[in-house]
Every structure is written in C-alpha cells, then in structure tokens.
Amino acid sequence: MDKLIITCAITGAETTKEHNKAVPYTVMEMVEEACAAYKAGASIIHLHARYDDGSPTQDIFRYKEIIEAILNECPDIIIQVSTGGAVGMSIEERSDVLNLIPEMATLDCGTLNFGGDEIFVNTENNIIYFANKMHELGIKYEMECFEKGHIDMTKRLIKKEIIKPPFHYSFVLGVVGGMIGEERDFIFLKDSLPDDATYSVAGIGKYEFSLAELAIKHGGHVRVGLEDNIYLEKNVLAKSNADLVNKVVEIAKKYNRKIANPKETRKILKMEE
Hints:
The protein is an alpha/beta fold and 273 residues long. It has helices at residues 27-40, 60-73, 91-95, 124-137, 148-159, 183-190, 208-217, 241-254, 262-268, and strands spanning 6-9, 44-47, 49-50, 56-57, 78-81, 104-108, 112-113, 119-120, 140-145, 168-173, 198-203, 221-224, 231-233, 236-237. The chain is globular, with a radius of gyration of 17 Å.
C-alpha cells in the first residue's frame, strides 16, 4: 500500500471568517496556513485565491503573489490550483490561472447543483477545453468527481484519448446537490475507477473524517481543510488547517499508513518523468 498523500484545501471560495476565523484571506494568512499544514503532513495545498476582504478571485496576479509567497517559505510543497473558481465565473476566468503553469490543477468533470439556485457548470466541452490546456502546458490534473456520472464522463474521454494517463481522481462527497458521503457511496465510486487510477477523497462537513478513514483503510488518499469542513469534531471549531491535517495523521497511524512527503507524492502520482 502506498504512503498516504494528504491534500489540504486551506481556504476555498465559499467559507468565510464568519464561519471560522481561521479561514485565510490575506497572502500572509495563506502562507501561514499552507506551511503549517505542510509541517503537519500535507504534501499538496489545494489553492483558491482571495482578496484581503475574503472575496474569491481567479485573478492571475493574485494567484501569482500567493503561490510565490508560499513557495518562498515551503519550496518543496505541491501547489494545486483550483480551476473551479466560484459559481458564476466564466470558463476563461476560471482557466486564466493555468497560464502560470502550476505544478498541478483540478479538472472538474461534470455539472451539478450547488444548493439554492446555484449551478456549478462543467459541460463536456468545458472539460475537454481544460484537459487540452493542461496537457498543452504540462500540468498534472486531479479529476474532481462529485458523483458517479462524472467518473463515467472521464471514462468516455479516456477512450477518446482526451483525458490521458496517469489518472488521478478526487471524490468530493457531501456537497448539496452531489452524492452524500456514506460508505456505500465511497465504495461505489472507488470500484468504478479505471484499474490503474489513484484517488483522493474530500468529505464535506460531517463526512470529512469518516471518509478520510475509509480512504486510508482502502489504500486511497485524503483531502481535508477549512474549505471543506471547519470543525475538528462536533461543535468544536478547528483552530487551523493544521489541526485537520493532524487528525488525519492520527487516523493513519491506526492503519500503519505512513505519510508521503512531496517527493514521494510526486512519485506515487507519476508527476515526474
């Protein structure tokens, strides 16, 4: 069984300081949270950009400022930028960050409701556009799937050789409008993957740690962070992203899963030639 890769989604686009004051907005806050998560055991930082007032942005200059500041303090860490942005952003707006040629980025693999009137739009042509651009720029992608149909979409695009190996997935479970995060849902998605795929699991809210444990047990990888869940346990707010990473490290010890460092993560995900 491979060592455990921990991704930390430090801020997101929706969670605010009103939910948990530890959610980072400023560049310095992003650096502090990213590096603390790294020291706790995270090898990948899933990154959304925000302005100092907390508003989400895909502005390439803001991303550049944040990425350079994080890498200046934690040069070995893997930065995975979000191409999801925030609901309502255009494809051009969402994809502009790829021009920075980050080491890794997310590839959202289907449309879904996001609660209320919000729709997170990812058409087949959108997916093809993002996949082609990432291939062109040599960016490793993680395929974000919120339900089984999204995995089926990737398989169709794999047959067309639009999505190319190595295949790495992220199950994002518990989002309003997507699949919930019970064990049956996890097993269904895991067993639907291509045989040679790796995967990580991001449980939203109450599903974060139960899904983390399932992923650890079954040889998968884990994403945690204040983007996905603001609580360390019921009614106890996490004081930092590192708190959430530390809890995963403790769960991993139960299953004798050692934690992958960034160099080992690159090898497991076949990011290096």
